[in-house]
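Task card 7
Instruction: Convert sequence to structure tokens.
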Amino acid sequence: MKLFKFSIVFIALLSLFAFADSLSVTAAEHSHTFSELYTVKPTCTENGYTVFSCDCGATYEGGIKNALGHDFSEEIVCFERATCVSYGEGGRYCKRCYAKKDIVKYAMTAHRPVIVTQKATVKRNGKIIEECSQCKKLYSSKDIKRISSVKLEKKSYVYNGKTKTPSVTVKDSAGNKLVENRDYTLKYSKGRKKTGKYSVKVSFIGNYEGTKTLYFKIVPVAVKNIDAVPSIASVSLSWDKAGGASGYEIYIKDKKLVSVKNTESLSCTVSRINGKKLVSGTDYTFVIKSYKKSDGEKIYSDERKVKVSTKPSKALISKARRPSSRTVAVTVKKQNCHGYEILLSTNKSFSNPKKVTVKGKSKTSYTFRNLIKGKKYYIKVRAYVISGGEKYRGYYSDVKTVKA
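Output:
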């Protein structure tokens, strides 16, 4: 049995050796085929060559080209300029690889002081700096305060036909005044005579930069000589023509009621406010402003107010009686007014009557005394208001008669 196993192993080894021998014969039969893979160009210090390769991975270098050698410049040139903090360097250099030789050193230079101004604006401070232009060494620094205030002398003028040129005051944040034509210049818009809106452009110069535009107005003359004539349910207003105006507007409590053009009669009648009729015996305050249109915007004058009261309505005697001998008591129905006028007469025509004025709308009764006993008396009443220094009276009540 052992002999049989040995024979099998021996035969396997012989087969293995025969297979290996056949492989070696096959490898020996391969022939390389080389092709150019890449080329390395020669430099100043290293050779150039071409690499060839076979498909099996074998390679070799061929086509050797000698190093070129340096090609130095004929003249010495400056590689790096000297400054106030470092030496300079010069020499000859290779035109291909920039290799250097024949190196020379240059002495450091002196500092170069310059003045640098960082200009101030309306938002930030500036500085005046003295420093070296090369190394930025700082010698001195002075702050420039920012511009904090740019104001016109006046923002509004009343029209008079003359050119308006408001002065401008400019201050820094420390309260110092800036100087025109040194720190800033001014450019005024054209015209500035007629009613309208005008500009002043402030351009900052010198130690400052930026611009700021200011505006002012020339407004129409305010209305004068307002005349207010009341009736029971309306008020008629009139006024003189205002210089520089193209129209007028009438308001009450910021509500525009009427607009009147300058070409029309300078008057108007107000009978309604917010669609409601005016109430008799009531105080109203009207505001009148002249205006002029300029570039699509209305420029208004100062307002003028006029207080006026509508006339009271017809008075009504609610009671007329004799409270005691030789007296007559009259009671008036309360209404909107400033007071009442009560007339007492012994005849229908009211010739030489006794007249009593009762002030205030709440005091509605009065008693006549020391009259002729048994005499018939005629009584009538009317309410009144005081407006613009004048008294405006309503209609008399119906006549009442009473025996004293």
